[in-house]
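Here is the promised in-class demo. Please do not try to memorize the tokens; focus on the logic of going from shape to residues.
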């Protein structure tokens, strides 16, 4: 991960870094399937592959504190010509996915800015209502070793979970205000022969009222929050691995 005050590691464990931007269309306008093709024509020189994404059945969502089933969204994926970079569009949602190798926050931030500029031009939204920044880390594991050999206990995971046998799952969702929350998942596969742990950090800022979010300062705040959570998990062993040293 990279920022002015954050180090860049030569051997990152990031399997995927993604930003999800929810936007509001102007009043009186609704989402139209033709927008998928219109967006593709705008980005085709850099993202020449467009493919539909099939989503499973109805999705369980929380709305105003109540659980509701929502129908699957139509979603389209656009693949970059040369880089492991994806853009995804569904009804009033733009997602930017960076796959390995992770080339740093400056590059991802730039990719998000460019993607939003294209979306702003094509969809002409009234503004942004929610931004999520998520980092999915896959951390190596030797047979029989607990996650605690790699990860430090902190506010988001208990020491008991990190000392668990394979098959554990720890999920913490912390809401700092009506607008901000962080979801952290740490898991180890039930298979004793599994060779990886999961560390998934998802930081979200949203506006439940009529206010709209600015993109760049919100992205910077979210990245700082992701980094703060990630730093709390670092042990000397994990840090050595990130630096490319022996385990």
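The designed amino acids, position by position:
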């Amino acid at each position: 991960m990279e920022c002015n005050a954050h180090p860049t590691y030569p051997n990152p464990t990031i399997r995927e870094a993604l930003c999800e931007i929810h936007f509001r269309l102007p009043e009186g306008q609704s989402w139209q399937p033709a927008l998928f093709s219109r967006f593709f024509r705008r980005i085709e020189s850099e993202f020449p592959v467009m493919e539909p994404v099939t989503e499973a059945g109805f999705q369980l969502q929380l709305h105003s504190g109540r659980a509701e089933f929502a129908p699957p969204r139509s979603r389209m994926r656009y693949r970059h010509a040369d880089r492991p970079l994806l853009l995804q569009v569904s009804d009033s949602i733009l997602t930017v996915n960076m796959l390995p190798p992770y080339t740093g926050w400056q590059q991802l931030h730039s990719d998000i800015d460019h993607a939003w500029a294209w979306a702003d031009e094509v969809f002409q939204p009234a503004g942004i209502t929610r931004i999520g920044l998520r980092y999915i880390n896959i951390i190596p594991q030797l047979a029989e070793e607990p996650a605690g050999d790699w990860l430090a206990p902190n506010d988001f995971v208990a020491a008991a979970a990190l000392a668990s046998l394979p098959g554990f799952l720890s999920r913490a969702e912390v809401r700092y205000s009506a607008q901000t929350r962080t979801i952290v998942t740490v898991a180890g596969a039930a298979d004793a022969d599994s060779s990886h742990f999961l560390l998934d950090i998802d930081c979200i800022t949203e506006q439940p009222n009529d206010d709209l979010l600015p993109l760049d300062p919100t992205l910077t705040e979210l990245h700082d929050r992701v980094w703060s959570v990630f730093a709390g998990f670092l042990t000397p062993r994990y840090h050595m691995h990130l630096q490319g040293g022996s385990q």
